[in-house]
Amino acid sequence: MATDAWTPAHRAELEQRTSSPLVGTKLLGQDAHARIWEIRLAPGERIPFHRHVLDYFWTCITGGSAVSRNGDGEVSTVRYEVGETRSLSFGPGESMIHDLENSGDGELIFTTVEYLDSPNEPLSLAGYV
Question: Where residue 40 falls among pLDDT bands split at 50, 70, 90?
Fold first, then answer.
């Protein structure tokens, strides 16, 4: 399996958090249309595995670098620029699971907006926030 090179802790966490809706470190707000999240990571800090099922976009506020492990075992190292923005969309039944670890030497901050009127039902936040 592609995750065999990961630490046992990362593999166990992936198995335990396959339905985690926590796509940020703090839920800033929610209305009938969207959930707005902040991701704020100190150097070496990470957001655990979580699943994206909703169409969303993110904007990097600070710039920096990070390592992300995907549920399929792929590991990527990415350099983010201040103001860099990307959007992702998921069809019915599609999703993505990953983590994000700040591999830089400064704080890494993102704003993420999930659209609640996406093709998939939102994952429940009950018991998480």
Answer: very high
